[in-house]
Amino acid sequence: MADQHDPSPQAVDPADEHLWSLLRRTVHEPVPDDVRAAALEAFRWRDPDAQLAVLVADSADPERERLAPVRDAGQARLLTFVRDDISLDIEVDERADSVDLVGQLAPVGPGEIVVDHGAQVTRVQADALGRFHVHGVTRGPVRLRCTLQATGTTVQTEWVLL
Amino acid sequence: MRNIDDESLVAAAANGDQESWEILVNRYADLVWAVARSFRLSRADAADVSQATWLRLVEHLHDIRDPSQVGSWLVTTARREALAVLRRAVRSLPVGHWWQLDIPDQRAEEPDAHVMRDADAAEVRRAFRRLSTNCQQLLLLLLAEPAPSYSQISAALDMPVGSIGPTRARCLRTLRRLLDVEKALDG
After folding, report:
1. Could you read off the pLDDT of A41-59 as tens digits, one per residue?
2. Chain B contacts of A77, Cβ < 8 Å?
3. By the number of CB atoms within 10 A of the CB, which of B20, B43, B123, B152 ranks highest?
4. DSSP secondary structure letters along chain B
5. How far apart are CA B122 and CA A24, in angstroms?
6. B71 touches chain A (CB under 8 A)
7. Which run of H or of E encompasses A133?
8. What is the pLDDT along chain B (187 residues), one digit of tens a residue?
């Protein structure tokens, strides 16, 4: 059944009706205009041709934590993205007002990494062992595009909230 | 135009139709925001959760398993992101387990735009905050506009559809009792 055909949870009991309208005027907080505007803007990031690397493990999300072992509090967050035979491991190091990323590309080899964060784009190179560092990544939704030098293949990670 | 079903909107947006995207956002932006705020996230964290949720929808428009349930997909995604934010915040604390912590309510008090005639707004807010976390969360989601379906609420709270109605009624009964207490204390 489609969502919009489900029974509505709106107040039906007239005694609740009054209380409900009170709540609507006092505790209901409508989505702020800038948040709605940002959601509308999100459509500009649409890229149907992207080869999407899916987040398969995230030490901050036990529901996704299938591949990596459970880690103790205080350890850096670990993320793994996979697309076909390409994988990307990211360690997130917390800084005062940003994060640093330490990454490992597999298959091992050099490549170019482009990071979308905030309104910024940062480019770094992965070395011959597929390792890379990104400094000063803005907190918020972040994604990485990785191009392997050996094959010219580009994969793009899902957005992840850092 | 506003009555187009979700499945058609998702399909059109997947093909690049900006207007369908706008209708989807206007249909669910309030609900996604309510989910993030119902976990007591700060405004900044809730804004990040909301944006991450919408960006994820953009990249999954063409491969969502059941596009007619995109509302439930959105609230499930927002819920996961909100829980991850909470877990990271707690992770950085020195001792204790997250379920033992009383996570402070980071939502700022905001001035009331309306003049309350039938009851004092502050009184209602005070009574509301004395409700259990579960009740506050459920009511905040039910207040989103347009009103969410029970299946969306169920996805957001990981709660069976059948218990939403009875829980809502119980929460409102408790709230009414708390309001009476507030009035008695004021009186």
Report:
1. 999 999 888 899 999 998 8
2. 88
3. B152
4. -TT--HHHHHHHHHTT-HHHHHHHHHHHHHHHHHHHHHTT--HHHHHHHHHHHHHHHHHHTTT-S-GGGHHHHHHHHHHHHHHHHHHHHHHTSSSS-GGGS-----PPP---SS--SSS-HHHHHHHHHTS-HHHHHHHHHHTSSSPPPHHHHHHHHT--GGGHHHHHHHHHHHHHHHHHHHHHHH-
5. 13
6. yes
7. strand A131-137
8. 568 999 999 999 999 999 999 999 999 999 999 999 999 899 999 999 999 999 999 999 999 999 999 999 999 999 999 998 888 776 554 444 444 344 444 444 444 444 444 557 888 989 999 999 999 999 999 999 999 999 999 999 989 999 999 999 999 999 999 988 877 776 5
Chain A residues with CB-CB distance to B18 below 8 A: 43
Residue in A with minimal Cα distance to B16: A46
Is the entire prediction scored with pTM above 0.90? no
Nearest CB to B128: which of A27, A38, A60?
Answer: A27
The pair of structure tokens assigned to B157 is 């709270």
The ipTM is: 0.83
Residues 6 or more apart whose Cβ sits within 8 Å of residue B69: A2, A3, B6, B151
Residues of B in contact with A32 (CB under 8 A): 33, 43, 47
Asked if residues A145 and A154 have their Cβ atoms less than 8 Å apart, the reply is: yes
